[in-house]
Amino acid sequence: MLPKETVLFGTAGVVGTSVLAWRTLFPWIGDDIQFLKKSRKAMAMTDKHIADGKMIIDLFEEDVLRTPKKSFIIFEDRSYTYELVNDQANRVASLASQWGLKVGDTVAIMIGNEPAFIWTYLGLQKLGIAVAYINYNIKRKALVHSLKSCEAKVLIIGKDEELFHTVDEIRNEISETPVYVQGKDVKHKGDYLPWDDLLLAVLPAQVTKSAREGVTYETPSCFIFTSGTTGLPKPVIVNQRKALTYAVILLLIGFRETDIMYTSTPLYHSMAGGLCLMGIITIGGTMVLRRKFSARSFWEDVRKYNATYFQYVGEMCRYLLALPQHPLDGVHKVKAAVGNGLRQDIWEKFQARFRIPRIYETFGSTEAMTSTVNTSNRVGSCGRISPILNRFDLIPKYIIDVDPTTGDPIRYKDGHCKQVKRGRSGLVITGIPKNMQHFKFYKGDLHVNEKKVIRNVFEEGDAYFNSGDLVHLDKDYFIYFKDRVGDTFRWKGENVSTCEVANVLTALDFIQDANVYGVQVPGTEGRAGMAALHLREGVNISEILEDIYKHCSDNLPGYAQPLFIRFSQSMNVTATFKHMKVEFVREGYDPSLVADPLYYKDDSKKTYCQLTHQIYDQLQIKSKL
């Protein structure tokens, strides 16, 4: 099963082949050696923490004792020291201790990017309570499902007025769940509890470690939700062990306690709320936090706060590159950028214009047991999957042949799968060690967990995690993200579930069926949402366009609302009644290819308007700017 390169390496070692000869035979070995050196040092810290029985909250409290006056969070021109955040976290713990919850119980927080998110998370960690990061963009059915799937005993919402209205819409459906509201006087509302008043009434006394006695490395630290093929958000379990390992990537890329990370992506995501937040806590660094990404304010913030690193998603980089050039474009103290989704077509332009010494593109999913990161500055790559690295990795990663139409792994005559050859694309899978076969990716339904596992891949009895991602493997074993398979695509840095969007659309009584998919728009990252709709007999298209627009706006976050709609006379389905999307994806929203009535989302008119050839050409030109 091992590639011939692995066998050759063994032979070379036996006969004492020189390093120069190795590099001649395998020119990519230098990248492997450098990565192994960096990863071993990074893993050594995590191993030591685990050997010492340290959890994330223990490391935070050590940060507080070691550097109490150091800035932990910089937010809207104010510095929040480790000591101050700890005081607030202690208040949260004191208040939460009155709820009678036990270690491992879940409290959901629906808070925007602000320090309150962080000290609320830390305060609950002091009691061993798992924290569910709720996406503040979701509404109604998806919100109810999220709260119930993580079995939230309490919900804490932020001070944003819109958050209150979103929760108020579903209050009757979660009537048994206490809801605490930050930054709002709700004394006159019997269904809500005033968080700020209650928090001020308790003392910030340090909580003893005995309060979280019973927490193990398998105990959930938090739940981070991801959109999947089931159509609704799923709570991914981030246990205490995984929370510690987020620091490995930051250590790999050279982030130290003297560094400052600028992040403006949502904390409910694994990049900001996992890699950045938990990694910075573990290392003892500083985070500059912004409520929302702003292209015009980005570099001004980076300069003002002396950020040495920033975290990105690909679309952010494209927005920044679209700004008019400025004399201060390359004036900053940034050493490196870390993130995912930066496309190869703008990589070098972005790096050169803004004078970014290193770009560390990562690959992985919230549920995965491991991830990759491009530490070689190879343009477009998100890491390496090589035979040598797999030999030293306890959780190896492989790329296997996949059916491009169904997204299913290809099984050959012997019933097993095959690794792709260099220069080919395939599906990334991650090994599940035999002693971790019981591992759960999501809280709740075991059936949902099992769907992410591929068994008997290379031999009977083995098991691998299905990433759902297609990557390209080049001749030097660097990988490049290509696309997602199945029923999920990415748009605006978010995962969009086609099933969820289709379910929202078919809730309208005049829509008989909906086939949702992603289409490529030149000059943008990911795929934009598009829906093929089959209407009930006798429905007039012109009379329902505003209704569709309003229904999507009311029930879906902006990134999940279809940008394009086509009205089909019938739906093409497989023998098992699954929607056939390949042809629809190929045709996209091009009126010269689509014979069906075609419409685009017009926010200025709050409706869907007919997509003519002229408007299509204008959209193509605009998207490339």
From TrEMBL:
Q: Is Transmembrane helix given among the entry's keywords?
A: yes
What's its EC? 6.2.1.3
Recorded hits in PROSITE patterns, A to Z, give:
AMP_BINDING
- InterPro entries in the cross-refs: AMP-bd_C (IPR025110), AMP-bd_C_sf (IPR045851), AMP-binding_CS (IPR020845), AMP-dep_synth/lig_dom (IPR000873), ANL_N_sf (IPR042099)
Reactions catalysed, semicolon-separated, are: a very long-chain fatty acid + ATP + CoA = a very long-chain fatty acyl-CoA + AMP + diphosphate; tetracosanoate + ATP + CoA = tetracosanoyl-CoA + AMP + diphosphate
The AMP-binding enzyme C-terminal domain sits at 500-578
Annotated Pfam families: AMP-binding, AMP-binding_C
Where exactly are the transmembrane stretches of this chain?
6-30, 268-289
Residues spanning the signal sequence: none
Query: Could you say which protein family the record assigns here?
Result: Belongs to the ATP-dependent AMP-binding enzyme family.
This protein is called long-chain-fatty-acid--CoA ligase
Q: Which organism is it from?
A: Sinanodonta woodiana (Chinese pond mussel)
